[in-house]
Amino acid sequence: MTHPLHAASADAAGETTKQQADELVLEAQLQPLADGGVETSRLLSEALRLDPSNHDAQILLERLHQMTVPRWHFPMLADTGRNQAYAKAIAEKVKPGDVVLDIGCGAGLTAMLAARAGAKHVYTCEQQPLIAAAAKEVIARNGLSDRITVIPKWSHDIKIGVDMPEQADVVLSEIVDTVLLGEGALATLTLAMKSLAKPGARCIPESGMLFAQPIESDSLYEVWRPQAAEGFDLSGFHHFATVAQMTPGEFDVCNPRPLGIRAKLFDFDFTNPSMKDASISGNLVCSEAGMVHAVLVTFEMRLTARITVGNGITAKGHWGRTAFLLKHPEAVAARDMISITAQHDTAALSLTVDGIVAPEATSQSDGASTTATGKHEMAASPARVLKLATS
Ligand SMILES: C[S@@+](CC[C@H](N)C(=O)[O-])C[C@H]1O[C@@H](n2cnc3c(N)ncnc32)[C@H](O)[C@@H]1O
């Protein structure tokens, strides 16, 4: 039987430990998150080491992880189509002895694939320090710490001679959102190819394309532009809903019907990227009659000449979809054209629907003109149209 005095001192020690854990939790709550949550995470982890059942520490750590580690990491890592495409492309393009720069380490998957493909060394950067620390752990557990260096920095802060001993033979990345540009891929790759890669370095992905396609979907409109709720008219709120962003599940529920094949908007060469803005105006041709509710924008990335990934209308991967809603659903007949203008800068795409053009209003000629700014414009006559390339 435990001596009552021993039991009392054990209780007192337990109380002190719990008190210390509570103090660490209080301190954690006062930390600014400017360091990406590193100090907050350290204090909360220490509190949980002292008192594993500290409820406040558990909750705060979970909240910190939700704030700092975007939830799309998990379905992305479970997207076997994406993973296999990258694995094949990396095996094809990375040669034994290559120095690889992997921009955007995440959990470390693409960096480990490059090491497995025979890279002499892989430098992988990750701007989020908690993610970078976890990747280091993943890489260590896979026995690759001697072949992969995790640099907990933005790629644009990497210095040759400090973070990497030499420029890369291959620049590898997967830093795209549903319309390719939202994670800043153009600026990131332009800077990386200029200063962190050897002349003529290989790139994975090599290029990317954006496409537009007219779709019919009552449900898309019902979800994004509900007319009324509980008898109240909500139309005064609709102007905020010009762009619908959907997870793959939400997109499937909308059951979209394509009213025409997709047309190419923009091409991006990632081996020789540019930070120039561009815009294009033109017509999407309807191949079927129906009600057009939106223009769906999707991408395709060419990882190698033969391997592509993307989020086309029937794709099954983790990437969501972006659809630009018309102000009002419009009835279209086969051969009608939907006049659109799209533009992009280094981080965003926008698209407006300018109207529906009946086929008799158009001539056979391609009235495209390109100004010095690279802007493709429709010719002055509304009858002349710029044909968008189709795929
Ligand atoms: C889409 S994940 C891809 C992760 C991993 N490469 C993969 O394919 O599984 C992109 C990661 O890159 C990071 N990231 C994006 N742009 C970056 C940049 N320019 N420099 C450093 N990290 C970046 C993000 O924080 C994110 O964790």
TrEMBL record:
Keyword GTP-binding: no
Organism: Poseidonocella pacifica
Protein name: Ribosomal protein L11 methyltransferase (PrmA)
Region of interest (Disordered), ranges: 362-384
GO-annotated biological processes: methylation
Lineage of origin: Bacteria, Pseudomonadati, Pseudomonadota, Alphaproteobacteria, Rhodobacterales
Biased composition (Polar residues): 362-373
GO cellular component: ribosome
PROSITE patterns listed in its UniProt record: SAM_MT_PRMT
A single GO molecular function term of this UniProt record: histone methyltransferase activity
Annotated signal sequence range: none
Keyword RNA-binding: no
Keywords: Methyltransferase, Ribonucleoprotein, Ribosomal protein, Transferase
